[in-house]
Amino acid sequence: MLKDKIKQLAHLYAPDFIAIRHHLHAFPELSYQEFETSRFVQQQLTENGIPFRVMAETGVVGLIEGKNPTKRLVALRADMDALPIREENEIPYKSRREGVMHACGHDVHTSILLGASRILQELRGEWEGTVKLIFQPGEEKNPGGASLLIKEGVLKDPTPQAIFGLHVHPGLEVGKLSFRGGMVMASADEIYITIKGKGGHAAAPHLTVDTILVASHLIVSLQQIISRNRNPLSPSVLSITSVQGGHTTNVIPSEVKLMGTFRAMDEEWRFRAHELIRKLATELVHSMGAEIDLHIDIGYPMVHNDEALNVVARQEAAQFMGNENVLETEVRLGAEDFGYYTRQIPGCFYRLGVMNVEKGITSGVHTPTFNIDESAIEIGAGMMAWLGAHIEFKG
């Protein structure tokens, strides 16, 4: 059976897949700077006889044709960039680049897709259709590598019927997968506000515009946009995460800068909220005698998993992994540029368990001690190859 052959190859090549992960982890590269990583991926595909093209400077897009290549077309996606975090793990493959670390597991994602591609290529005479491999740059930074690849035509010539992506989940036990249909991750927009006014001596506030006080009122008032305007059944959050202003105890500064993030699971509400933020902030600041510069940097759209595709993918996962190992993914207000793909074609973004409490592997993503139980790589590569080779589409 094809399933058994995929599992056998995933197990046989697991040490190679883990070695790939160790290399990638030791040499991380930041968003849109993945030049060595891209060359490494290209080398791996070349060694496995898989044709590819380079897109968006560092993106790599491969194509594997099975029997009857036009019968079905599936895209499998992995991201390649790292984060500006200094690694604190003491491991043989610790990052060799100071201040840069694969703290979100993209080294794992890339290793898994390279593993799946090797399996699919070796078994290409035993499955039907075509699989498009998307090794994507810049997931961690606007405008998102997915948006750049789409602009360059990654979903054309040929156009996939569906796209699959996975993400490590440090809160999910190794050996488990989780799926969810519909809304699964939030949109993410960045807010930048500068409040300006006449500064002066703190002992004579009547001769100044107290920008600190204005900023304080604004931070509190912005929360009513969520609490009083949003449908309470629709998850959303606005967080001001940085306040910069003033340098001493006796001077009211002439400028205060605020930064924050706005997350939503509904695109219509998302852009209505932008207008409410602009209106409230401008009117409040002006009413207190100050001026305002406000910029909302539009980020990634929400990730919406196609309901029908998710049902089929979850069934395939249960067949491959066992029903007891397939769970429901929680809604998260984190963001992922996989949402750009799901706006174009049906998509399924699922989670791979990497936690092992007994081994002390419990740190979250985006932390300096993040790591995984590496047995997850064999599972991830096998499952992704199974989806690529076996999943069928309705209608």
Instruction: Give the number of DSSP strands.
Output: 16
Q: Strand order within the widest sheet?
A: 1-2-4-3-5-16-6-15
Please compute the radius of gyration using only Cα atoms.
24 Å
Give the quaternary arrangement of the chains: single chain
Fraction of residues in helix? 25-40%
- CATH topological fold name of the largest domain: Aminopeptidase
Any idea what the CATH superfamily of the largest domain is called?
Zn peptidases
Kindly report how far apart the N and C termini lie: 26 Å
Count of discrete alpha- or pi-helical segments spanning 4 or more residues? 9
Overall mean confidence score, pLDDT: 97
Total discrete domains: 2
* Shape type: elongated
Lay out the secondary structure.
Layout: H1 2-26, H2 35-47, E1 52-55, E2 59-65, E3 73-79, H3 106-122, E4 130-136, H4 145-151, E5 162-173, E6 177-179, E7 182-185, E8 187-196, E9 200-201, H5 211-229, E10 236-244, E11 251-252, E12 255-264, H6 267-287, E13 291-297, E14 303-305, H7 307-321, E15 326-328, H8 338-342, E16 347-355, H9 375-390
Parallel strand pairs: 3-4, 3-5, 5-16, 6-15
Antiparallel strand pairs: 1-2, 2-4, 6-16, 7-14, 8-12, 8-13, 9-11, 10-12
Helix pairs in contact: 1-3, 1-9, 3-9, 5-6, 7-9
What does this structure look like?
- By secondary structure, the chain is α/β, with parallel strands linked by helices.
- It has two domains: 2-185 and 302-390, Zn peptidases (Aminopeptidase, 3-Layer(aba) Sandwich); 187-297, Alpha-Beta Plaits (2-Layer Sandwich).
- It contains nine helices and 16 strands.
- It has helices at 2-26, 35-47, 106-122, 145-151, 211-229, 267-287, 307-321, 338-342, 375-390; strands at residues 52-55, 59-65, 73-79, 130-136, 162-173, 177-179, 182-185, 187-196, 200-201, 236-244, 251-252, 255-264, 291-297, 303-305, 326-328, 347-355.
- The strands form four sheets. The protein has an eight-stranded mixed sheet with strand order 1-2-4-3-5-16-6-15, with helices on both faces.
- Strand 1 and strand 2 (59-65) form a beta hairpin.
- Helix 1 packs antiparallel against helix 3 (106-122) and helix 1 crosses helix 9.
- The chain is elongated, with a radius of gyration of 24 Å.
- The mean pLDDT is 97.
